[in-house]
Sequence to fold (71 residues):
Amino acid sequence: MEVFIDGMSKKDWPGVKAIYAEGLATGLAAFTTVAPSWSEWDQRHFEFGRVVARLESETVGWAALAPVPDN
Fold:
């Protein structure tokens, strides 16, 4: 079995959101408790630097770049 890294698109959101929600459930992943909608998430992340990891047709991981406040 090989894991493939691919660019993320809106069609990947259901799998990404599921993984995101698993992290939020731990209470350690972010300062929020609910995964955002696609449009909220999309607005908070750069369009470049979004990737998903796929094992066959399943999304098994993701990464995305987001701006960091400079204050």
Observations:
- The chain has one domain: 3-64.
